[in-house]
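Researcher: Let's do a round of design. I'm pasting the structure tokens now; please hold your answer until I've finished.
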């Protein structure tokens, strides 16, 4: 990195410096290996990975990652010294003054499918990883979805259960009352059932409006994640418009998505 590049990080982000300096603690792995992160001056590297189903792939459906590939992806993160962090840690570091560890990665899962409990959770536990599971409260316990008992067990193991609304509507098309119901009720139900605090939302289909953001703020949500692709973050990006990386059932593209070599 040029002196100018380093200066730009230094002048724009203390967290960026800490992340950059932390990367030097892996001197052997930091010489530009294919599995090393690519840092961007002025931005904070901390990819949030987005999964949907972790189950045997159905045709070309991009929303399925097969369980054996998922296990390989967890092993890859472990073997390449990536540090899986919670969404709270992510928020407190990007928007607050906590320091990120080197090679930070967040794992997120949308929709509350039962295969998260059956296939993702055991593989994560094996490596001591935790993640955020965004659930649709009206679907909990339904066919193909996790039950409250499964979610309680996961919470006991450090998994983070957050909101993906009550009914998975298009929040961009919904009026203020519907936005408020979807965001307030899902938060309340999860908090009552699990005894946890809900402060993070994933927008169904990535759709939201200014009204959605206004209601999120009123209700005390700290973050909302989108489906815009980027591995890089900044306090200048709204905490209600946080990008994530869609992950598919492939090891080569996985390495590209995690390291920053691939965007789409
Ligand atoms: Zn969804």
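Researcher: That's everything. Go ahead.
Model: Designed sequence:
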């Amino acid at each position: 990195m040029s002196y100018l590049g380093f200066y730009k990080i230094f002048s724009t982000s203390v967290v960026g410096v800490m992340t950059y300096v932390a990367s030097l603690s892996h001197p052997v792995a930091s010489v530009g290996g294919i599995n090393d992160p690519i840092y961007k001056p002025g931005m904070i590297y901390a990819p949030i990975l987005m999964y949907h189903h972790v189950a045997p792939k159905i045709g070309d459906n991009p929303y399925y990652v097969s369980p054996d590939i998922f296990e390989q992806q967890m092993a890859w993160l472990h073997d390449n010294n990536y540090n899986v962090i919670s969404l709270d840690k992510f928020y407190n570091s990007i928007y607050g003054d906590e320091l990120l560890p080197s090679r930070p990665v967040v794992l997120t899962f949308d929709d509350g499918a039962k295969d998260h409990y059956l296939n993702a959770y055991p593989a994560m536990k094996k490596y001591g990883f935790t993640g955020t599971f965004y659930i649709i409260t009206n679907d909990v316990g339904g066919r193909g979805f996790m039950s409250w008992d499964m979610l309680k067990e996961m919470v006991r193991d450090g998994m983070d259960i957050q909101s993906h609304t009550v009914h998975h509507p298009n929040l961009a098309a919904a009026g203020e009352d519907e936005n408020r119901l979807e965001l307030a009720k899902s938060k309340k139900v999860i908090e009552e059932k699990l005894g946890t605090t809900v402060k993070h939302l994933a927008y169904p289909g990535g759709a939201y409006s200014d009204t959605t953001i206004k209601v999120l703020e009123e209700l005390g949500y700290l973050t909302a994640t989108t489906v815009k692709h980027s591995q890089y973050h900044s306090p200048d990006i709204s905490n209600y418009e946080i990008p994530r990386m869609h992950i598919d059932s492939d090891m080569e593209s996985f390495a590209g998505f995690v390291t920053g070599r691939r965007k789409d």
